[in-house]
Amino acid sequence: MFDKILIANRGEIACRVAATARRLGIRTVAVYSDADARSRHVAACDEAWRLGPAPARESYLRGDEVIRIALASGARAIHPGYGFLSENEAFARAVAEAGLVFIGPPASAIAAMGSKSAAKTLMEKAGVPLVPGYHGSNQDPAWLREQADAIGYPVLIKASAGGGGKGMRIVQASGEFEAMLASCKREARSAFGDDAVLIERYVQRPRHIEIQVFGDSHGNCVSLFERDCSVQRRHQKVIEEAPAPGMTAQRRAAMGDAAVAAARAVGYVGAGTVEFIADPDGRFFFMEMNTRLQVEHPVTEMITGHDLVEWQLRVAAGQRLPVLQPGLAIDGHSIEVRVYAENPDKGFLPSTGRLRHLRTPAAVGFTRHDAGAVKAAVRIDSGVREGDSISPWYDPMIAKLITWAPDRAGAIARMDAALAEFEVIGLHTNVAFLRRLMRCDSFAGGDLDTGLIERERAVLLPGAPVPGARELAMAAALVLVLEARAAAGSADAHDPWQRRSGWRMGARLEREMGFTAAGQTLTVRVQYAPGGFTVHGADAAVCLADLHWQPDTRRLTGLAGAQAFDCGAVLDGETIHLFDGQGHFSLGYRSPLADIGDDLADVGSLVAPMPGKVISLLVDTGAKVSRGQALVVMEAMKMEHTITAPADGEVTEIHYRVGDQVGEGAALLALTADPA
Questions:
Q1: pLDDT given for residue 526 in this prediction
Q2: Which domain holds residue 573?
Q3: In 45-193, which ranges are E strands?
Q4: How far apart are CA 437 and CA 461, in angstroms?
Q5: pLDDT of residue 493
Q6: DSSP string of 502-558, one letter each residue
Q7: Which helix (H) or strand (E) element contains residue 652?
Q8: What is the mean pLDDT of residues 626-633?
Q9: Domain stops at, among 201, 235, 260
Q10: pTM score of the predicted model
Q11: Distances (CA, A) of 391 to 353, 564, 572
Q12: What's the CA gap between 577 and 370, in Å, rounded?
């Protein structure tokens, strides 16, 4: 076994490899770009070396620099993770030429499977089933159209060097072919530097089923069964599960045999995935082979009980596979979802920003270290922590969330419950979308194909939820609790004017609170009562009592009527975030105290509305700002207040730094108004 390895990747896969290596007594070397200098994977390894600037082409794709660092650090092998250099034939060859071990397949296997067209020709010779199509080298548009006409429509045009859903077009009729071909070639040329394409019959309502294979240098090769990756958007996987719903033992054996034959055809060593497209009649066809560990490998680990990263390390060190085919079996069902920083309501566009609040479900399970076996009821693989940023430079994945249960229904139920505990503030995520998928009848019933998301758009993408009476009451409760905490911590907590009991001579206090959510303005009326409050809003009244808020966990507990509640509650600037098990609700709230300074502020300066601390400066001297733009964030009375520009202009002076305490009425910065 190796004494030290370099991990040529980032994020959750780098953290995962580091954890397995540590268990085996192997030291690890991290590499990082400037954007990842303080990342989780850097902290997870024994030492870390800088690669270069943030762009991947100047850092993680610098194979020569990765090899130089490996040699300088004394590493004996390089684990490429997935993505970046993991399927780069030239890099794998250069690693071997440098006297290091590439923890992956031979360069020749990567080369054989690197071209979709060449791979299909090789698979055809090996007897692996192929989708009817044209995989030749003649790229003349007229010839390609003739092939498509002969295959019969609809057809799929696919970039030969493609991946990740890029360079693919579905053509429904001959008259569309020319325009679709030109578009596909442009995208392929831009993404891969190669515009060669292949043409295949488009399988209607296809399922995407892949087989995990593993080979060693002693001639052994096994199938670790299948994963169903049919739930996709834009040809990219959203949910992966193992085993595949509805899979028969006969079909599983046939697909496993075909996958092993594909791997043996290229002399495969290490972890790989043979991907198939399957039609509703049960026929399956070779699609491609990924010559690396896949993002979705944890579901295979869950149902087999084996650590595939450990297998990679042992096989790369020349050892035999720990288990051969007769010793492998399926135990239970596992589902994985990819929690992404993206906005499903806007075409799944990536979202960037800082994870100002991150709470994940607790991992539940065990690892048998003696056999290297892995199983968990709930597992989280993540490369980020609260406070980290999701940058535009890399894949916006926050975490992989994996559940296991004895059957599929149990795994779905556990996933829904785990997603209910996943809380993120600072950027958009797909958590609510994933919960709706878990509850979708088509998914729950195993009616899967790659068009499921598009077919169920009305169910899966209903738009932002409007808070009901319960959510409005929770938002009001958070405001009330924070006000009470602030009063209790004031300089004279016994001053009756600081009390928040709502006591009045001859009556109890009533007040209104205004919130905004889903483009609506929502007003609630709060009645103070002995021991609690009654909140009237959304045509209902909710009685609140025994309210408590824990600042360390950001949990709000209490009674709503006779029912106890426990929800995540965070005031982030002027937005209240509630995580109550039913979903994530965001409500805008502007404290009346935030307006105290409005009469004091003039165009030339902005003042603190009350005593507090500067916690964020959002502009620099010389910045051009517009009316209403956020400039400074203060913290006062345990709440944040954002100071905005009263007019268009230019920031001429900043009088305080982050962390400074300021008094009420203090000028925070100076602004020269725009004459216009």
A1: 94
A2: 469-589
A3: 47-52, 77-79, 101-102, 133-134, 155-163, 166-171
A4: 10
A5: 53
A6: -EETTEE-EEEEEEEETTEEEEEEEEEETTEEEEEETTEEEEEEEEEEETTTTEEEE
A7: strand 649-654
A8: 86
A9: 201
A10: 0.80
A11: 7, 39, 20
A12: 44
Neighbours of 472 (CB within 10 A): 25
How many CB atoms lie under 10 A from the CB of residue 304? 23
Residues 93 and 182 in one domain: no
With bands split at pLDDT 50, 70 and 90, how would you rate the model's confidence at 483?
confident
C-alpha–C-alpha distance, residues 5 and 18, integer Å = 9
Higher pLDDT, 93 or 346: 93
CATH number of residue 529's parent domain: 3.30.700.40
φ, ψ for residue 127, nearest 5 deg: 80, 20
Q: Which two tokens stand for residue 464?
A: 């932002």
260-298 burial, b at 16+ Cβ within 10 Å, e below that, comes to bbbbebbebbbbbbbbbbbbeeeebbbbbbbbbbbbbbb
Distance of CA 339 to the CA centre of its chain: 3
In whole angstroms, what is the distance from residue 373 CA to residue 87 CA? 27
Write the CATH number for 157.
Answer: 3.30.1490.20
State the sign of the Cα–Cα–Cα–Cα dihedral 561, 566, 567, 573: positive
- Tell me the per-residue pLDDT of 12-35, one tens digit each, with 9 for 90 and over: 999 999 999 999 999 999 999 999
Give how far Cα 30 sits from Cα of 70, 73, 110, 287, 343, Å: 10, 10, 24, 34, 31
- d(C-alpha 355, C-alpha 586), whole Å: 16
Share of residues in the chain with pLDDT > 90 (%):
66
Radius of gyration of the chain from its Cα atoms, rounded to whole angstroms: 29
Q: What is the pLDDT of residue 502?
A: 63
Answer whether the bond into residue 243 is a cis peptide, omega within 30°. Answer: yes
Residues 508 and 649 in one domain: no
Residue 616 is predicted with a pLDDT of: 86
- Three-class DSSP category at 634: strand
List the catalytic residue out of 10, 76, 292, 435: 292
Does residue 669 form part of some domain?
Answer: yes
Cα angle: 549, vertex 487, 571; to 5 degrees? 40
- Report which DSSP code applies to 427: S
pLDDT at 106 over 50: yes
510 and 435, same structural domain?
A: no
283 is catalytic: no
| Residue 675, both tokens | 């004459």
Is 239 found in the same domain as 183? no
